[in-house]
Write a structure and sequence with these properties.
Elements (H helix, E strand, L loop, with lengths): L15 H10 L32 E7 L3 H13 L5 E4 L15 E2 L3 H12 L1 H24 L9 E9 L2 H17 L8 E4 H6 L8 E9 L2 H15 L4 E4 L4 E6 L13 E5 L2 E10 L5 H4 L7 E12 L11 E6 L3 E3 L4 E11 L6 E9 H4 L9 H14 L8 E13 L5 E4 L2 H4 L6 E5 L9 H12 L16 H6 L3 H9 L3
Parallel strand pairs: 1-2, 1-10, 2-7, 4-12, 10-18
Antiparallel strand pairs: 3-6, 4-6, 5-6, 8-9, 9-10, 11-15, 11-16, 12-14, 13-14, 14-15, 17-18
Bound molecules: flavin-adenine dinucleotide (FAD).
């Protein structure tokens, strides 16, 4: 069971805004030293515990976080700069955050978000976000092929079947897709709408009001990311070091006059293994971002996801090479228990073993809005065990739970990633050398790779504005209007 560090004072319904504010702005903490064991990481990569005998001292770039975003930034800086030195700092084992604990779905959500995006940002920016996320998925698949990791990562190109469990959810989705197709006729055909009869008769899924197919994929992200890190270490042995088990505790900025080298290495990262000086600091810490950046707390907050692996004993045919699934329902909330059903289940199947990878949240809010992946919410696991057979029209509770674990996502106040240079108002430090790519709202496989690439290029002074959605940036207007603590509270409130 999880500790309750909010105190009973905040547990009454009347205190909801205070309670929610306290939830979203609390320190996510450092990644917990003993996380739950993710099925994807059961066989650790040879580099899982890699580190230099001594922490290097002076580096051009220090990247904090070794998930897919940290990888994308490191790869871009190394490939695009002829001589830059790069160190990746990781609190735990290599790729032990969300990337190593997720649902393995390569799928975009921009279609169902389109209506909101268009209303908030206009049709052009909303269309760019659709393009960016679908292009990011293609780039994931290209990366897997380039690094000869198709078999290793069990990558599948397939269709995702989005299933809507209520008529209201289905209607909202159809309206969003109709607006997408009206604003951007070139997107016609991206989504195929299905009625409820087709969903059950052709796809064997029960209890829906309708569904939709879209191009997608599945992957074993831990195997991909660790393999590419290993290749980078081999290619750039004198320019890249990876320091696992090296949490960064604090960051200090020195003014150029402080010492002769301060103008080159203006930042000191204080780690568990001593200090490291760097010219540029890149935050790829996603749900944990607020720990090193207190002024970002609430603008990004951690959100804990629960995953299971379940064995259906061949009761359902193996569709792992053709279909993955998402199940959408209106969020449910019990004010007495503060238990939130988040509104989404995600499901993929291993084409090799037939095992189902099934995730979703149904747990007390304070367990979900949390950076603690050292325990799994029992409520969520029970919910996932009960729900899965029913989607396939079975009432069989004997499907074996092979594995369950949790992981920490980064949710942003306005639902969009943050990619860019951090202003002093968010770092609390002087200096212009801190950058961030984070806040992927549970859709990292559709955003992180290109966000990391874009960030790397921006750091090197390149213009990425033709393809990075402007709404992902850290402009003053966003920080004033939408990326705010009240925004985060409202987003959570809309689920209650
Ligand atoms: C249960 C679950 C299911 C998900 N399912 C999907 C899915 O099916 N499809 C999808 O697209 N997305 C999914 N996601 C989201 C996706 O995994 C993330 O958006 C993505 O992996 C984010 O990558 P990242 O590199 O930014 O962050 P992470 O992979 O979390 O990497 C951040 C790293 O930073 C390290 N770190 C943090 N603070 C410090 C510090 N102070 N010092 C040193 N190191 C530090 C962490 O240990 C971590 O390894 C899921 C996430 C979870 C948790």
């Amino acid at each position: 069971m999880a500790p309750n560090d909010l105190g009973n004072h905040y547990r009454t319904h009347a205190d909801e805004p205070t309670y929610l504010s306290k939830l979203v702005t609390r320190d996510p903490g450092l990644p917990r030293p003993k996380p739950t064991e993710s099925y994807w990481q059961q066989i650790p990569h040879a580099l899982a515990n890699t580190q230099s005998p001594n922490l290097p001292t002076d580096r051009d770039f220090a990247i904090i976080g070794s998930g897919i975003t940290g990888l994308a930034v490191a790869k871009t800086l190394l490939e695009r700069h002829p001589s830059a030195t790069v160190t990746v700092l990781e609190a735990r084992t290599l790729c032990s955050g969300a990337t190593g604990r997720n649902g393995g779905q390569m799928a975009a959500n921009a279609g169902e978000q389109y209506m909101n995006l268009a209303e908030t940002h206009g049709a052009e920016t909303a269309g760019k976000i659709v393009d960016f996320t679908f292009r990011n998925l293609e780039k994931m698949q290209e990366l897997i092929e380039e690094y000869d990791a198709v078999e290793l990562s069990e990558m599948q190109r397939l269709q995702k079947l989005r299933v809507f469990l209520t008529q209201g959810k289905f209607d909202d989705f159809k309206k969003s897709i109709a607006r997408l197709e009206r604003d951007h006729p070139d997107k016609k055909g991206l989504y195929t709408i299905l009625d409820a009869d087709t969903v059950v008769e052709k796809y064997g899924i029960h209890g829906s009001s309708g569904g939709a197919l879209l191009p997608a994929g599945t992957v074993w992200p831990y195997r991909l990311v660790t393999k590419v890190f290993a290749a980078l270490l081999e290619r750039y042995p004198n320019r890249l070091t990876i320091e696992t088990h090296t949490p960064v505790n604090t960051i200090e900025h020195l003014s150029p006059s402080a010492s002769p080298t301060a103008s080159t290495y203006a930042y000191t990262l204080h780690t568990s293994r001593g200090p490291l000086r760097a010219g540029t600091v890149v935050h790829c810490t996603n749900g944990y971002s607020g720990h090193l950046l207190p002024d970002l707390r609430g603008l990004i907050h951690p959100f804990k996801g629960t995953m299971t692996v379940q064995d259906a004993h061949n009761a359902v045919s193996n569709q792992g090479s053709t279909i993955s699934w998402g199940f959408h329902y209106p969020p449910t909330y019990n004010p007495e228990t503060k238990r939130l059903g988040y509104g989404l289940f995600y499901l993929a199947q291993s084409a090799k073993t037939g095992y189902f990878y099934f995730g979703g949240e149904n747990a007390p809010l304070e367990y979900s809005v949390s950076g603690d992946d050292s325990f799994v919410a029992e409520e969520s696991v029970a919910h996932l065990e009960n729900a899965l057979p029913r989607f396939f029209g079975k009432d069989d509770r004997s499907w074996r739970l092979v594995s369950s674990w949790s992981g920490i996502m980064g949710y942003s106040a306005d639902g969009l990633p943050l990619v860019g240079r951090l202003p002093s108002s968010l770092t609390g430090r002087e200096g212009e050398g801190e950058w961030i790519a984070a806040g992927f709202n549970g859709y990292g496989m559709a955003n992180s790779l290109m966000s990391g690439e874009a960030l790397g290029l921006m750091i090197l002074g390149e213009d990425v504005s033709s393809w990075l959605p402007i709404a992902y940036g850290l402009g003053e207007e966003r920080l004033r209007e939408t990326l705010t603590v009240p925004g985060a509270i409202n987003a959570l409130k809309s689920k209650l």
